[in-house]
Amino acid sequence: MSTPALPTTPALFQTMQWIFNPVGYMNTNFKRYGDMFRGYVTWDGMDPLILVNEPKAIQYILTHDTGGKFTSPGDVNKILEPLLGQQNLVMMSGRQHQNRRQLVMPPFHGERLKAFGQIIQTITTDLMAEWATQEIKNIRKLMQKITMRVILEAVFGLYQGERYSQLERLLGERLEMTNSPLTSAVFFLPWLQKDWGPWSIGHRTQKIAAKTDELLFAEIEERRANPDPDRVDILSMLLAAKDEEGNGLSDQDLRDELMTLLVAGHETTATALTWAMYWTHFLPDVKQKLLEELDSNATPTPETFAQLPYLTAVCNETLRIHSVAMLTFPRRVEEPMELCGYQLEPGMLVMGCIYLVHQREDLYPNPQQFRPERFLERQFTPYEFMPFGGGVRRCVGYALAQYEMKIVLGTLLTQCNFELLTNQPVQPSRRGATLGPSKPIRFQKVGLRTQSSKTLQPV
Q1: CA nearest 275: which of 415, 438, 40?
Q2: How far apart are CA 244 and CA 131, in angstroms?
Q3: DSSP state, 342?
Q4: CATH code of the domain containing 125
Q5: In the chain, how many domains are there?
Q6: What pLDDT, on a 0 to 100 scale, did the predictor assign at position 180?
Q7: Strand pairing of 331-333 and 349-352?
Q8: What residues of the chain score a pLDDT lower than 70?
């Protein structure tokens, strides 16, 4: 029995393909090799990783990833260390990872999650008020502002002020430095992360990181000195969190977790919202059906937006057709086994290929078609639709991200009318560790909508 196929192109060339054209790389190898293949998707001396896109195989991997057949090691995620730090959920393994996850998870679920709904809606409404009628905007810039402010207020617990403004600027600059396939290479080519002088990406990122850390540690210090049990932001909850032995998180732990939540919750959600606005306006029938549902919603609150079935389907289809996260975190094979007719040996690293799962014709007929009705016609398993990964490494903020998408999109389309000015099809392209639009998507705000008249109201 053979191991999964390995493309014959040289390893470095494969890495360059993965950096500069990940969609082409995945599609080409899927057509050649099917449900499982090996590939060099990083260049740090590692063996090729095994990419799996067969849902039942992914289910097997992600339900056996806590010891025994597979493990879920944090050390293989080291390409993210310069951005996230060392003492965070992504970098941890085993019992340490399990304990940290139990500390970090609670603020993102249940009643605590609902506390963020009004923050999200208010931020969206305020930024819409700043957008003048007939003004043209790159919609991604607006979505980045919204999601950054959600992170600063709901996660960091910061509101208007000097520290708020400085962090908004610095964090935005840091993430913007990997906004293209070329600059994204810093994630995959470790030598680019070094400080080679003022001209280098490494120098600039380290300079911004130092200023950002200074602000974050100052905020943590002030919050420790002045605890407020009435605050509902995630930093306050993490400051109060204790493990089974009564130990809390150190300042460095908090800093690293805050950076992880920023990276996982800002850029990814902004990208998904950008695609959602694009598709709902690129396809008039989708837009009309969504507006009819929104107009039938008598009380446009965060809670009611979260319950609307077609709005939910639009958000899910957005996350499917352009998977922001392309791969799950790696799992390590711990004992010899057969999977999908291939032989796997201890030490091999396997990753679920989220993008290819979401493009499978047997699951999603005409997968390149944006069709929200898919999610009204059938239920998909967590291994057929998995925009936030799965198993013990599933994104802790997935519920907040879905909640935020529905509130922001629902609020925008309930309050205003927009015209899409980018009329040519937009393709996905690498943006950091994720997929985003290959070019700016421009919208014009053409007027206000009212719940009573449901017609265009000039400003």
Answers
A1: 438
A2: 49
A3: E
A4: 1.10.630.10
A5: 1
A6: 60
A7: antiparallel
A8: 1, 43-46, 67, 79, 81-83, 177-195, 199, 201, 450-459
